[in-house]
User: Fold this.
Amino acid sequence: MEPKKIVIVGLGSMGFGMAESLVRAGHEVYGADIDAEKVADFASKGGHAFDDLGDGKADILVCVVLNAQQTETVLYGGPDYAGCLAEGGVIVSCATVPPAFAKAMEAQATARGLAYLDAPISGGAIRAAAGELSIMAAGTPDAFEKADPALEAMAQTVHRLGDEAGPGSAMKSVNQLLAGIHIATMGEALAFGLTQGLTVERIIEVISVSAGSSWMFENRAPHVRDADYTPRSAINIWPKDLGIVAEIAESAGLDIPITETALTLYRKAAEAGLGLEDDAAITKLYAAQAGLKLPGDA
Assistant:
């Protein structure tokens, strides 16, 4: 596949790994982030700083920021990164946003003569760095064709969900509904087991090979076992993502009581000062309630 000139905006835990995957695939990749150290780090690993693009034009823009507000700002606001694309270039937008917002962003891209792919991501930082993400994508056939060189480098699986923006973001909300609930349930299950004299280590050992397991349990419970709350995915993400789910459900007239309960728990965890910790720290909320000691507690 012919190498492309690609700009990636957002070099966080996911974006940095995605940028590395693009470089590894042989593309000419320019990274942008509000943290200059991340940009310098990326440049030291085979990439380029966005400023080095100069007056040149990119073929593909991959946007990996936090939310809808940041997406609109970096694409069409002050930075106007969409302006770095050559005529007919494609925007690959990866943030978790409401479907209606994705459609609005596509309309702005179309007005500029650009293609737009609604392309939320899932898989975590490790799979991002390995180029093995799951991408839930929707957009015109032209957008898919133009984005394909980047998708090929970043993803293990690309789910084609529709011919216009919206379904990709809708599917990501389905995923986040389940993932957020599973993490909260993981914390509840560990705390429940501790009240019965079981250890976190033994709970993980048994449940990981039993019917009650989930990918989130197997991924996050070891963080609690190891008392490692370094944020691979922070508590603060979930009030936003489950908040989007709640808004969509309300507009559809659907009652989602389990999601609402999980959303309340994440909000309480953030209010308790856990917002910047790994989302496995939801377990601390349960532990504090019952006076339990988790691994690493004095």
Observations:
- The mean pLDDT is 97.
- The CA atoms of residues 184 and 213 lie 13 Å apart.
- The chain is about 50% helix and 15% strand.
- Residues 169-290 form a domain with the N-(1-d-carboxylethyl)-l-norvaline Dehydrogenase; domain 2 fold (CATH 1.10.1040.10).
